[in-house]
Amino acid sequence: MPHWLKPLVLPVALIVLFEAWARATDLQSDSLAPPSAIGRALIEALGSGELWIATRDTLASTLAGLLIGSAIGLMLGIALGLSSGFNRLMDVTIEAIRPIPSIALLPIALIAFGFGYRMEIVIVAFACIWPMLILSRAAIGGIEPRLLEVARLLRLTSADRVRKIVIPAALPRIFVAFRLAAGIALIVAVTCEIAINPIGLGASIMAAQQALRADLMLAYLIWIGAIGFALNAGLLLAQNSLFGRAALAEIAR
Amino acid sequence: MNRLIARLATAMLLALLLGAPQAGAQNKIQVGCTATSDCASAMIAVDEGLFKKQGLAVEMVLIGINSNIPAAILSGSVQIGGPTSTVFLQAADGGLDLVAVAGASVMGPTSNGNIAAFVRNGITIKEPKDFIGKKVGAPGLGAFLHVLFVKWLVEKGVDPKKVNFIEVTFPTQMDIIKSGGVDAVLTAEPFVTRMTNAGTGTVGARYGAELNRSEPIIFYAASRDWAEKNPETLRKFRAAIAEGATIVNETPEKAWAAIAKFTKTPIDLVRAAPPNRSDPTLKPEQLAWWIDIMASQKMLQGKLDLTKLILN
Fold first, then answer.
1. Which of B190, B211, B232 is at the close of a domain?
2. Which residues in chain B show pLDDT less than 50?
3. Is residue B7 part of a domain?
4. Which residues of B fall within a CB distance of 8 Å from A211?
5. Helices H, strands E: what count in chain A?
6. Which residues of chain A register pLDDT less than 50?
7. pLDDT the model gives residue B275
8. So what's the pLDDT on residue A244?
9. Is B21 inside any structural domain?
10. Helix, strand or coil, per DSSP, at residue B117
11. Do B280 and B162 fall within a single domain?
12. Residue ranges of the domains in chain A?
């Protein structure tokens, strides 16, 4: 058996088993559908413009929220990592705000921003700040002290120290944090759409469920999985091509 | 790299601008409703060009959960929404400044007959007190069907506190009843027929028909501020809704088509149940009954002023 085939055996076997079970029991459900029906619904959805519009809406919110949240998290992470005084000052505040689930902010966000991209971007950004902040702060803390000594000896300004020493040294680990935040961003965006926001793939799942189209609902679910997979694969590729062996070292660490 | 950052920033800015809600131009409004037949008068008015005839451009927004409608109205995401009576009154009681502007659907022989408490196989309900100790799934706690069922229990001399209620949304009811996760669900057509045909259980009580009420299920509501600033838009809206309501009641075929289109539900499923009766008028006494039973179920904290809740 070719080596690339092996990982596919289990999922394919499970799909075939599920199909056989659904047919044997004449599955009547509003939540489940046989894989063949899901496949047909996915093809039908791919042919209609709605899936692509929903995908655009979800991705726009995910990426905008991810970039804004990551940027804020990174800036705070660097500041906190470099200044132990600032770190001590902010510690209680950050630890008090961080545990708030971003989804719990939805009712407030709805009143403040209304339906649409803005509400979702704010919620996604809030969720992305924390992994970026914590991991980039740790990444800065883990920088070889001699590098910082060199910066002092060279009498670099604070801005130069961050630009020339701190960010390059911590970048591979910061990128790992970014990948982590990207996964969170997609989950939060879809959850936001399922709960309140009437745009994007999450809202399409809800609409399909309420229309009792379990096949279409599950087709959307699979599509979201594929998008998440592609997003992660793309970022992994970017990580390897940008950082090469340094990235591998970070993963191994 | 700098150019890339600039491009990303531009894309983000565009996304933000696109997402900004459009300032409510007088004749362009959004109406938010859930995927039920209750807002059929508005759906028909869109499909038949009744709003357009009045010079209104109306976009219908499909909202997943009814209790989100008050917040959607206040945020300006929709100018008019279709909350259930219970959601509206709880929102108003909570201090949200909403007013009812036109009637949508009312209870009647048809809609009351569609409502049922459906029990799973193995459970027999002979009289209301048989519900004591049972686990009953309601589509929303404190929502329309739940409040009605509690009212029915009280009328039949059963203490509702002795019934265990949990939340089970319509699309998941059949599977949960089948798995025995709950003993009964509070539901309506077309779910009653679907679950009966699938052999998952039987109708335990037709509590809607037994209560036999005629108060509003859902009505159109807006924020007081918006409603007072746009009397002319509201006049046009009401005129189109009145015309739409007549079509819904007289030609269900057109209503089914409009409902299927808005809710994206297969037409066969929509046709399984007649649309709830549309009634564009709204009277204070119709809300008084709801206020009474919600107050008796301790769902309201303060005292609501009926004269201020409806803007005719």
1. B211
2. 1-2, 4-5, 8-25
3. no
4. 35, 263-266, 269
5. 12, 0
6. 251-253
7. 87
8. 67
9. no
10. strand
11. no
12. 52-252
Share of residues in chain B with pLDDT > 90 (%): 69
Q: Which residue of chain A comes nearest to B263, CA vs CA? A: A211
Q: What is the CATH number of the domain that holds B282?
A: 3.40.190.10
Give the pLDDT confidence score for residue A246 in this predicted structure.
60
Look at residue A74 in the predicted model and tell me its pLDDT: 94
Q: Which amino acid is at B180?
A: G
> Distance, in angstroms, between B120 CA and closest chain A CA?
15
Give the pLDDT score at A248.
Answer: 54
Interface of A with B in 181-240 (CB under 8 A): 194-196, 198, 203, 206-213
| CA nearest to B190 within chain A | A212
Q: Domain for residue B93, yes or no?
A: yes
How do residues A62-73 score in pLDDT, each as one tens digit? 999 999 999 999
Considering the domain architecture, whether residues B61 and B130 belong to the same structural domain is answered as no
**ipTM at complex level:** 0.74
Q: Tell whether B132 and B194 lie within a shared domain.
A: yes
Q: Is residue B3 part of a domain?
A: no
The candidate with the shortest Cα–Cα distance to B223, out of B25, B19, B69, is B69
Q: Write out pLDDT tens, residues B68-85.
A: 899 999 988 999 999 999
- CB atoms B62 and A113 under 8 Å: no
CA distance A242 to B242: 64
What was the pLDDT predicted at A76?
94
B17-22 CB contacts, 8 Å cutoff, 24+ apart:
B18/A117, B19/A116, B19/A117, B19/A118, B19/A119, B19/A120, B19/A121, B20/A116, B20/A118, B21/A114, B21/A115, B21/A116, B21/B75, B21/B76, B21/B77
pLDDT of residue A168: 87
pLDDT per residue as tens digits for the range A108-117: 898 889 899 9
CATH 2.30.42.10 assigned to A52-252:
no
Closest residue in B to A107 (Cα) is B71
Give me the pLDDT at residue B238, please: 96
Tell me the residue range of the domain where B183 lies: 111-211
Owner of token pair 């120290």: A161
Tokens coding B279: 């009634």
How many pairs of residues across A and B have Cβ atoms under 8 Å apart? 102
The pair phi, psi for residue A40, each rounded to 5°, is -65, -40
B168/B35 same-domain check: no
Q: Report chain B residues whose CB lies below 8 A from the CB of A107.
A: 71
If asked whether residues B177 and B303 sit together in one domain, one would say no
CA distance A9 to chain B (A): 30
In the prediction, which pLDDT does B14 show? 47
Same structural domain, B234 and B99: yes
- How far apart CA B166 and CA B187 sit, in angstroms, is 13
Instruction: State the pLDDT at residue B272.
Output: 84
B310: how many CB neighbours lie within 10 A of its CB? 18
Pairing of strands B115-120, B201-205: antiparallel
